[in-house]
Amino acid sequence: xxxxxxxxxxxxxxxxxxxxxxxxxxxxxxxxxxxxxxxxxxxxxxxxxxxxxxxxxxxxxxxxxxxxxxxxxxxxxxxxxxxxxxxxxxxxxxxxxxxxxxxxxxxxxxxxxxxxxxxxxxxxxxxxxxxxxxxxxxxxxxxxxxxxxxxxxxxxxxxxxxxxxxxxxxxxxxxxxxxxxxxxxxxxxxxxxxxxxxxxxxxxxxxxxxxxxxxxxxxxxxxxxxxxxxxxxxxxxxxxxxxxxxxxxxxxxxxxxxxxxxxxxxxxxxxxxxxxxxxxxxxxxxxxxxxxxxxxxxxxxxxxxxxxxxxxxxxxxxxxxxxxxxxxxxxxxxxx
Length: 336
What we know:
Elements: H1 4-11, H2 17-29, H3 31-42, H4 46-54, H5 58-62, H6 66-88, E1 96-100, E2 113-118, E3 124-127, E4 133-136, E5 140-145, E6 153-164, E7 173-176, E8 182-185, E9 189-194, E10 200-207, E11 210-213, E12 219-222, E13 226-231, E14 236-241, H7 244-248, E15 255-261, H8 262-273, E16 276-279, E17 288-293, H9 298-308, E18 311-316, E19 330-335
Helix pairs in contact: 2-3, 4-6
Domain FecR protein: 115-210
Protein name: Ferric-dicitrate binding protein FerR (Iron transport regulator)
Coiled coil: 16-43
């Protein structure tokens, strides 16, 4: 069981790695625990901490003596945690925030990083140090410096995120992804889908202009409405025009499918509803669907799909593991 003290330490980034893993597993499995964490963050006088944090001139503070910085480091870390928690307290949406900070004995020029992990079944709006905004889909991890340098802004992404980047011609914004792919921009709006368990990485541009650097150092330019599909195994890149809103509607809580296979639909439903979907057979998994879902529940969506294809489904409830964590709810699909 996860007690109140452990949740508090988790919120403040004071857990051990093992405690962190246990809390995250419990959060994925328990909506009640996610609500408890949400209420805990609200009770930590977040508003006062934000005001205090904003009153600090970070650049001036950084120029103070090494001794002063070392003494203040832990206190600044806690305030930063409260600031980020404020952005995560959206209704029914919650994410896990872990801030990695330096030991007091480490040199002051070592960069401090923040890492945000969004559990399956949630969507998080998150503000970066430069006021750029990013929406993180379920199962996504974003890592970035607590303070960006004066020459560049670099973040590392695994999962899916929509970026609204603040324009700054002097400081390019980089997104590094698995398999050596990266994006650099100066100010624009775009979506990246880079889950580790997918065979591809895709990027779509809504506004502005972006440059994608492939592992072999080729630069591919995307203009609004363009989409790049990168195959991890074959290292192939395909650029084409797409319906941008289909790719980015998830951040508004919508699921839009255009000529999508059952396999693609079920994978997105797994992340959206934090469930596991199991096929008994895959007879007509290549059947294509066109649908838009806004506020429908998972059973409503599955009932809709069953009318268009010969499929039946049943639910298997979560089960408690020996370590007191829970498995995901399982949906078993029978394709006739």
